[in-house]
Amino acid sequence: MSLNIVVLAKQVPDTRNVGKDAMKEDGTINRAALPAIFNPEDLNALEQALRLKEANPGSTVTLLTMGLPRASEIIREAMFRGADGGIVLTDRSLGGADTLATSYSLAQAVKKIGNYDIILGGRQAIDGDTAQVGPQIAEKLGLPQVTYAEEILDLKDGFVTVKRRLESGVETVKSPLPCVVTVNGSAAECRPRNAMRVMKYKFAASPTEMASKPDEIKAIIEKRPELQISEWSAAYVDADPEQIGLPGSPTKVKAIENVVFTAKESRRLTDNDEEIENLVKELIANHTIG
Amino acid sequence: MSDKNNLIVYCEYEDGKIADVSLELLTKGRELANTLGVNLEAVVIGNNLHDIEKQIVPYGADVVYKVEDKRLYPYTSNPHAAVLINLFKEITPQICLMGATCIGRDLGPRVSSCLHSGLTADCTALEIGGHKDPKTGKEYADLLYQIRPAFGGNIVATIVNPECRPQMATVREGVMKKQIHDVNHKAKIVNLDVKKYVKPEDFVVEIIDRHIEKSKINIKNSPIIVAGGYGVGSKENFDMLFELANTLGAEVGASRAAVDAGFTEHERQIGQTGVTVRPKLYIACGISGQIQHIAGMQDSSIIISINNDPNAPINTIADFVITGNVEDVIPKLIKYYKKNSK
């Protein structure tokens, strides 16, 4: 049985390399100022999708991402690893969205895709760590959800069997399709780029990217639909302006504080033997250790 | 405008025992409800709940809603979400708290999506306070401040939900203190009929197998923790931390950077996205001290920081700062412990 698989992915600022201009005055993230990467757990989700595609010949894997136009970079990356193509949902009016406005917007885009059997995504993104968007999309689409997935064990006869990794152990669940599955970082790592695919898809581009390409490249992309990364606007997915972006977000950032620690009385030591021995003796004497 | 609706805590349980995180949230919820002058309510959904309120009421709940059905345990998403959604439409709580556990983080978003109410994940502090909308100038009294580190730990954000109810927040286990309010506290027990809240078609996902495995690594309850950061440098150097931990009868923890770098396993991660700990001694080795990490260990009784950077942020909360290389200092700690202990 061939499947239409949608993978939800996010291009995230690499939170390990955050600079001073990372935040805008309104408390939202200044994404333009940061190095952007493929959200790690979305790569785990992509791997599960590619395995399903291999097991079910004729299946397609479509990436869906919301963000700045440059988020097409992660779609190209996914194509290099095995995805068939993708869509960037991008619009100024989507900016400043909290998880609820984000999930509404993405759910609208999924409805526009229309024909899907399973929706996969990473458990959470490293810039927010909320893990909310997956379940919220499931609710908006009226679908069951399976979170914390570690492995898709089986998919047949309209059901998917999934192994979940929880705090206290492992759970195997069976859900009817379509459904939303969010994948843990403990799942199998995503396969690397495939050299043949890199050759094949290196010119893949979104309309925004195409605009700055030389004419001969444009001509190649226009002739080959598989190289065309879609860009959808909020209006194209019939999103209600009241439910997207900052206005559609029930949560508001009231205050942002830069982190300053209040110093308590620290005792400063060097790695000198005597000082360390005295510290150990002191900790033994006051029953902290020993 | 202030809101006299109640505050409700979703209580999780496993094997007949209410989860610690739920008791911690009841403790915090009692305090917030007192500030607001409202009742504290609890809801527990599952099977074999006969005396479960005895575990809940001493923490200060004024009302306990119970929904009992054998299909409601173990937890699955849709039926539990259906109970909360329909119950909240009826009783319109102003605040709902749940644990930032695999269950709470699965359930909370689904409920918030349906009710169109804001949800903030993994809060490290909850307070009550006023808010003025900078755009409209509209003023709000007594909102829930949902405080959490964000964005790589460089900032602490205070989030509010001015218009939507309930204001929902999840909190990790160990972040709030658990404290009995009054052993003789009295509550109204309300048994709800599952058929009124859950439709048969909500039972869509079937659990085929489930084996509970207590996590082998138990850093949460260890009185001494030796934690390593990115500054430890390698998986091999991490072995030295294990040696020190074995010597002291301690557990080994790690910062997110060390886990991301593959020095050790995720189960050892301490901080906002890992475990919150409050041991009597915390030895931070090569940890710079991002707020996300600090949030998970700042209540340790004694903190020793070993770092070759004398200005590492963690040093400001440390009781003892040893400026030096981890690989020089740890063997000395081992050596002098062995020499001086009986």
At CATH's second level, what is the architecture of chain A?
3-Layer(aba) Sandwich
Structural class, judged by helices and strands of chain A?
alpha/beta
Gyration radius of chain A (Cα, Å) is 23 Å
Beta fraction of the residues of chain B? Answer: 25-35%
- Unreliable segments of 5+ consecutive residues of chain B: none
* Low-pLDDT ranges of chain A: none
Q: Element order, helices and strands of chain A?
A: EEEHEHEHEHEEEEHHHEEEH
Quick one: biggest sheet of chain A? Answer: 9 strands, mixed
The percent range for helix content of chain B is 25-40%
Helix content of chain A: 25-40%
Most extensive chain contact? A-B, 79 and 94 residues
Describe the structure.
The complex is a heterodimer of chains A (290) and B (342). In chain A, 29% of the residues lie in helices and 26% in strands. With 290 residues, chain A is an alpha/beta fold. Chain A has one domain: HUPs (Rossmann fold, 3-Layer(aba) Sandwich), CATH 3.40.50.620. In chain A, the strands form two sheets. In chain A, strands 9-8-7-10-6-1-4-5-11 form a nine-stranded mixed β-sheet. A two-stranded antiparallel ribbon of chain A has the order 2-3. In chain A, helix 2 links the parallel strand 4 and strand 5. Chain B has two domains: 196 residues, HUPs (Rossmann fold), CATH 3.40.50.620; 117 residues, Rossmann fold, CATH 3.40.50. Chain B is of the alpha/beta class and 342 residues long. Chain B is globular and about 65 Å long. In chain B, helix 6 packs parallel to helix 9. Classes of the chains: A alpha/beta (290), B alpha/beta (342). Chains A and B meet through helix 3, helix 4, strand 7, strand 8 and strand 9 of A and helix 3, helix 4, strand 7, strand 9 and strand 10 of B. Strand 9 of chain A pairs antiparallel with strand 13 of chain B.
Short description:
The complex is a heterodimer of chains A (290) and B (342). Chain A is α/β, with parallel strands linked by helices and 290 residues long.
